[in-house]
């Protein structure tokens, strides 16, 4: 088919879950922002729903949950194939490894008498964690791939190195809502009372999954170095994950337990962002960090690991600081510099917020995907 102004393009978005994580957030922002006069959107979750299911349904976007139970679940695979055949989308847009694999396998096995959708695969990270068998699956399913889109140039470069032809690679950066900055006095007072934080404390924060790739142990050691200069620095770790118990033990070992607060998952995290004096991200690999972008959108000075995806967001010395992976001394030095210089903190935060407004808006992200949908159908 050829897309034109009178054509409604049917898009099915397929993702493993609708949990409150980065890829799920971007899918939901896209689904709720695509112009309804041109795109008819449905969402399929392989395994389970979650917080974003509620948001999608509030926007009258149909959601199908397939309840996948195993790495390869024949029942879920057949249910997916049947769902695609019933929905008859023009485009199947898949997100993350499980959905990318199931979606392309289902399309490959569709009846020749049915309309076969174009498949756009979204890769969200520099997936150095993938094993050989996973890369082999990706390569074998390339014939079913119309386009592979990364959320940063670093992701696209990684997949080109894995053998994906340059001709089908595209980049569409994440989009981020630019928040209104409002009064936070009551929220600050409540948080400080709940967490027994001194009134004159300075807050550093990390928001995300407590997982090995995030190198949160580096942030704990950074805190230990900073405590030598200022005992009133508090590190907030917001999120859950498999490393939490280990990190709590490390905090005790490093004698920084009085200066760390493990807040767990916080549905009100957007209200907490404006309270942060500084945001830290120490990951050894990323795709394009939603939490880093959110911090920048609130005008918070940031320090991030010097890896390619973060370089696309943080201009060293202008919108934040970059330091080598594992360089706790570097994190501590930049943190001390920012916390000691209010004007520097303001300048970095203002430039970061402006960069998010100019280059990473939801409208720009939505327009990017809409252009790709038109491209594969033309």
Count of individual helical segments: 15
N- and C-termini, Cα separation: 7 Å
Q: What sort of overall outline do the alpha carbons produce when their principal axes are compared?
A: elongated
Q: Give the total of domains.
A: 2
Q: What is the top-level CATH class of the largest domain?
A: Alpha Beta
Give the helix/strand class: alpha/beta
Rg to the nearest angstrom?
A: 22 Å
Key structural traits:
378 residues, alpha/beta, 18% strand, Glyco_trans_4-like_N, Glycosyltransferase_grp1, disordered N terminus, single chain, 13 strands, Glyco_trans_1, 7-stranded parallel beta sheet, glycosyltransferase, Rossmann fold, 15 helices
Overview of this protein structure:
This protein is an alpha/beta fold. The protein folds into two domains: 184 residues, Rossmann fold, CATH 3.40.50; 175 residues, Glycogen Phosphorylase B (Rossmann fold), CATH 3.40.50.2000. It contains 15 helices and 13 strands. The protein has a seven-stranded parallel beta sheet, sandwiched between helices. A six-stranded parallel beta sheet has the order 10-9-8-11-12-13, sandwiched between helices. Strand 1, helix 1 and strand 2 form a beta-alpha-beta unit. The longest helix is centred in the last third of the chain and has 18 residues. It is elongated, with a radius of gyration of 22 Å.
Task: Sum this structure up briefly.
This protein is an alpha/beta fold. Helix 3 packs across helix 4 (97-108) and helix 8 packs across helix 13 (328-340). The chain has 15 helices and 13 strands.
């Amino acid at each position: 088919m050829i897309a034109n102004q009178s054509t409604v393009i049917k898009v099915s978005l397929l993702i493993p879950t609708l949990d409150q994580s980065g890829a799920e957030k971007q899918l939901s922002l896209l689904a709720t922002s695509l112009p309804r006069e041109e795109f008819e959107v449905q969402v399929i979750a392989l395994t389970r729903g979650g917080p974003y299911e509620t948001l999608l349904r509030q926007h009258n976007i149909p959601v199908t949950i397939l309840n996948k139970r195993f790495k390869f679940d024949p029942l879920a695979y057949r249910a997916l194939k049947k769902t695609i055949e019933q929905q008859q989308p023009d485009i199947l847009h898949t997100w993350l490894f499980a959905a990318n694999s199931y979606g392309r396998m289902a399309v490959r096995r569709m009846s020749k008498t049915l309309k076969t959708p174009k498949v756009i695969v979204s890769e969200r990270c520099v997936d150095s964690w993938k094993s050989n068998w996973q890369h082999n699956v990706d390569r074998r399913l390339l014939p079913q791939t119309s386009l592979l889109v990364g959320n940063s140039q670093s992701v696209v470069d990684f997949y080109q190195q894995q053998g994906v032809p340059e001709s089908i690679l595209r980049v569409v950066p994440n989009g981020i809502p630019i928040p209104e900055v409002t009064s936070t006095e009551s929220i600050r007072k409540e948080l400080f009372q709940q967490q027994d934080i001194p009134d004159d404390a300075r807050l550093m924060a990390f928001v995300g999954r407590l997982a090995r790739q995030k190198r949160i142990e580096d942030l704990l050691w950074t805190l230990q170095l900073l405590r030598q200069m200022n005992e009133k620095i508090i590190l907030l770790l917001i999120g859950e994950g498999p490393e939490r118990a280990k990190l709590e033990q490390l905090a005790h070992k490093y004698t920084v337990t009085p200066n760390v607060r493990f807040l767990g998952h916080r549905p009100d995290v957007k209200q907490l962002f404006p309270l942060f004096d500084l945001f830290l991200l120490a990951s050894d690999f990323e795709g394009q960090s939603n939490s880093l972008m959110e911090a920048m959108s609130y005008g918070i000075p940031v320090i991030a690991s010097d890896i390619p995806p973060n370089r696309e967001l943080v201009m060293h010395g202008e919108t934040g600081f970059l330091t080598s992976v594992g360089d706790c001394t570097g994190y501590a030095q930049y943190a001390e510099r920012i916390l000691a210089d209010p004007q520097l903190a303001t300048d970095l935060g203002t430039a970061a917020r402006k960069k998010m407004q100019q280059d990473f808006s939801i409208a720009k992200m939505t327009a990017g995907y809409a252009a790709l949908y038109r491209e594969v159908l033309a």
